[in-house]
Design a protein that fits this description.
- α2 packs across α3.
- The chain has 37 helices and 22 strands.
- The chain is globular, with a radius of gyration of 35 Å.
- Strands 7, 8, 9, 10, 11, 12, 13 and 14 form an eight-stranded mixed β-sheet that branches.
Length: 880
């Protein structure tokens, strides 16, 4: 009895003493780390994490004092390293930071006084209740979160399942769901990823992976090694935030119990983090041999090979040998070491031959987000061989995986072919005609790489544009992609129209040579060696813009048709329309450079000699129109247009496209030197004019329609017929937005003309306009964009009239004969512009006339007479 009383007395004394030391507050838990942990610990933590940079976009996490959100940071694997990083670096960056760690126990980094208070509070609680205190049941976490503290929650830990489902320990997600149902303030989860490397995961574990943890979930030793070796390579990514009320009120979640809602939420966030990580590192990387083995042993492909063997009277082994050879010819050999080598080489090259790269970062961020939703297809325009390298370079340097690139087989030559394969290129033949097994193997490979999660890049124009404009879409590869989507269970497939442009392209001389009828230079090692001369010149800037990605699912749903049930011609129409939609989106993302504007001014002006002030005046007219249409302008035009134009004139003079008068050119406003066009260089200037011509075509059509009215007063409705005719006539030259009607385009252009005082609306008559005294001159400046095309088509029309009686397709070397006729007409002054002697323009004109009734010229006199009369009327109003 006395012993029991003595023990009770000792216990009471200890409880009283601890109560005094705890200052009547017993809620001290190791899951909470205060902001002030002491000078020494703060110094050490700050020193450890100082090398890791926090990206600027983390500023989106800023909370104002009246922000009601309760922020819960989320990571995939439990990691004290990550908790201390977020707590330290985010706090010093002025961002919300986690001070609570769900199921974390932090002792040794606590301030000394708080450390002892935690110990005393736990002893006090144990003496009183014979159990240790619980931060969940005591309401401590609930109270701290309502006070404005943030927390870190880890989705996976070694004994997480055991704790939640066997020991019935509290599940933080279940706790937060129950809490959310009792409060009005929103709980928001912000998933975080710390990446120690951009290298993708592989299917085989290395010795380092087994000893020190994987790249995705490194152990302490590997983290410390990466931190000491190169902390700048460690970077942070934030996934899209999840508002808890929105998630639990989803139709598929609402009726579940709180525990099942927690299970679904955990699964959703793990998937979100995995997809975000894959959007940076790329899919799990398999070797080329592994891909080959999986593909060739696929039951569906084995059946195809067996059917082919039977049709061709081959043994199954011979057929499989052919299939393996085809796959070796096609397949990429994606290799991170090769990509890093190319990155270093390109960085050096771009520094020496370009003045910089202007990248649409907002568009790139949109692309990164979309890439987490389904297969991403990159569809850039194609102006140069450098296009193959630009996007992988941009992606690699912006924490995105390099895409696999569809390249022509002509680029597989040694030694660049193996390097390109290592960088992600896979090769295809220009035509599948006559092949039976090859298309099946290629189709299977394409589906395989999309299934693996690779982004795929292809050039929808097929080949490089020799004219500076975007070309009409080639739908062969596009149809394979659409068919792959229809065969698989992907929720969607996204196409990203991308504009890649240059102030000057490396291949400009080769392009002009081909346009004038010369042969294309083949790709081989000798020509690669000769290309070193390009390193001796500067080519201005590179521009990369990203249009909003297009959803294939949304596009197909708009057609209200089942594409698989349609006959082939109708399927082709759908592919063609979608291809034009992609190209018109590329056009809308294009950048107009000072080179394009000055080239247009020089070529569209009537005289062969011009003064500096005249150039500046005309350039201002074009620039005013572009601004009114909200067109993307090169940064040099935005910052200082006069200096940009001066530099272009100097460059054109240096390259002999124009000749400058003997008087010195000065930036002084008093200087007004005289320039002369070098006639033989007009095709080069035409290439740069064409890089921005698509934006001027609506104005050119409208101006031509106004001039054709031959009156100083006209109505908007009077212009529609001419606009429609011109749009149909030049449909093979320019890609038009298939969803934009003619009346809208006319109204929009007339509004721009009113802004520039080219026309004035009639004060009383609706939809009626008067041409101003200065407007006629400016209309001629816009209509002049059409002059070389009318002249090219006039040459072809003359060929139909005078030089052929049978169908063009049956006329031997008809393009060469048209070129010869064009040269004679140019010498006889029947046409004025040497840039009209374009092989591509001639081909487009032949396509137009043969699809509009002039198939056999001898039997198409009525159609020929119609176009002759129409062309003569239009040419009468064209500026000469």
């Amino acid at each position: 009895m006395l012993y029991a009383m003595k023990n009770t007395s000792i216990k009471s004394v200890m409880l009283g003493w601890m109560k005094t030391k705890l200052a009547n507050t017993r809620n001290y838990f190791a899951c909470y780390l205060p902001p002030d942990t002491g000078f020494l610990s703060q110094f050490i933590l700050k020193l450890i994490f100082s090398g890791i940079k926090i990206p600027d976009e983390k500023t989106a996490l800023h909370k104002s004092t009246d922000d009601p959100r309760i922020l819960i940071f989320v990571n995939k694997y439990k990691s004290y390293f990550e908790f201390f990083f977020y707590h330290t670096r985010y706090r010093y960056a002025g961002l919300p930071y986690p001070s609570i760690g769900f199921d974390y126990k932090i002792f040794f980094w606590q301030p000394a006084i708080r450390f002892f208070k935690i110990i005393f509070s736990h002893i006090h609680h144990f003496f009183k209740h014979l159990t240790l205190p619980n931060a969940y049941k005591s309401g401590y976490i609930h109270e701290k979160l309502l006070e404005g503290d943030s927390a870190l929650l880890s989705l996976m830990e070694k004994k997480g399942f055991y704790r939640r489902f066997i020991k019935e320990k509290p599940d933080p997600l279940h706790y937060l769901i129950e809490m959310q149902k009792t409060i009005d303030r929103p709980i928001v989860f912000v998933p975080q990823i710390i990446l120690y490397s951009r290298a993708p995961q592989t299917t085989q574990l290395s010795l380092a992976d087994m000893l020190m943890g994987t790249i995705e979930n490194p152990g302490r030793t590997r983290r410390l090694f990466n931190l000491l070796k190169n902390p700048k390579k460690i970077f942070i990514e934030t996934c899209d935030p999840i508002t808890l009320t929105e998630f639990i009120n989803r139709p598929d979640i609402r009726e579940l119990s709180s525990r099942n809602q927690a299970v679904m939420l955990r699964r959703h966030m793990v998937t979100l983090i995995n997809r975000h990580r894959q959007s940076i590192t790329g899919p799990v990387l398999k070797s080329r041999l592994e891909i080959r083995e999986e593909l060739l042993t696929n039951p569906a492909l084995q059946k195809t090979i067996a059917e082919y063997a039977e049709q061709q009277n081959l043994s199954i082994y011979e057929a499989q040998g052919q299939a393996a050879d085809f796959l070796d010819e096609i397949a990429s050999n994606y290799n991170l070491k090769t990509i890093r080598f190319l990155d270093v080489a390109l960085r050096w090259m771009f520094k020496h031959i370009f003045d910089g790269m202007v990248i649409d970062q907002d568009g790139l961020d949109r692309l990164k987000q979309v890439s987490r939703k389904g297969p991403l297809i990159l569809a850039p325009c194609h102006k140069s061989h450098l296009d193959y390298l630009i996007l992988p370079y941009v992606f690699f340097n912006n924490n995105m995986p390099c895409p696999l690139i569809a390249a022509g087989k002509n680029l597989s030559f040694w030694p660049l072919g193996p390097i390109f394969r290592g960088g992600g290129a896979f090769f295809l033949r220009r035509s599948f005609k006559g092949e039976i097994l090859y298309p099946k193997i290629f189709d299977a490979y394409l589906q395989k790489i999309l299934d693996e999660g690779f982004h795929v890049k292809f050039f929808i124009e097929g080949g490089r544009s020799r004219t500076g404009k975007v070309l009409m879409p080639k739908i062969g590869f596009l149809s394979l992609l659409v068919e792959a989507y229809l065969k698989n269970n992907w929720d969607d497939m996204y196409f990203a129209p991308i504009y890649v442009g240059y102030d000057r392209v490396l291949e400009e001389k080769a392009y002009i040579h081909e346009l004038e009828g010369g042969k294309k230079t083949p790709e081989n090692l000798i020509n690669v060696i000769r290309a070193r001369k390009f390193l001796k010149r500067k080519y201005g800037k590179i521009y990369v813009n990203f249009h909003e990605p297009l959803s294939l699912k949304a596009y197909l749903s708009q057609t209200h048709l089942s594409i698989t049930d349609l006959p082939k011609p109708q399927q082709k129409d759908i592919y063609q329309n979608f291809g034009e939609k992609i190209l018109s989106s590329i056009n809308r993302s294009a950048v107009v450079t000072p080179h394009a504007i000055i080239a247009a001014v020089i070529l569209n002006g009537a005289p062969k000699r011009f003064y500096y002030k005249q150039v500046m005046d005309h350039a201002e007219t074009y620039l005013t129109y572009l601004v009114s249409q909200d067109i993307n302008l090169a940064d040099t035009l935005v910052m200082d247009r006069t200096s940009a134009f001066n530099l272009v004139l100097e460059a054109f003079a240096q390259n002999k496209e124009i000749e400058k008068s003997a008087s010195e050119f000065s930036l002084s406003t008093q200087a007004n030197p005289l320039f002369k066009i070098n006639e033989s260089k007009r095709p080069t200037l035409d290439y740069y004019k064409n890089s921005g011509v698509t934006f001027f075509i609506p104005a050119a059509f409208t101006a031509m329609a106004i001039l054709k009215t031959d009156a100083f007063q006209f109505s908007g409705g009077d212009l529609h017929a001419s606009y429609k005719f011109l749009k149909e006539l030049f449909k093979n030259e320019f890609v038009f937005d298939p969803e934009q009607p003619v009346d809208f385009a006319v109204r929009k252009t007339l509004k721009a003309f009113i802004t520039d005082a080219i026309i004035m609306p009639h004060p009383t008559l609706p939809d009626t306009y008067n041409l101003t005294s200065n407007g006629y001159r400016k209309l001629n400046m816009f209509a002049a964009f059409l002059t070389p095309y009318f002249e090219s088509y006039w040459v072809v029309l003359n060929f139909f009239m005078k030089y052929t009686r049978k169908p063009v397709s049956e006329t031997r070397n008809y393009l060469r004969k048209i070129q010869a006729l064009g040269s004679r007409m140019y010498k006889r002054k029947e046409i004025e512009r040497i840039e009209a002697l374009s092989r591509i323009n001639y081909q487009n004109a032949v396509t137009f006339f043969t699809t509009h009734g002039i198939i056999e010229p001898e039997n198409s006199k009525e159609q020929i007479d119609f176009y002759v009369d129409t062309f003569q009327r239009y040419r009468r109003y064209l500026p000469q």
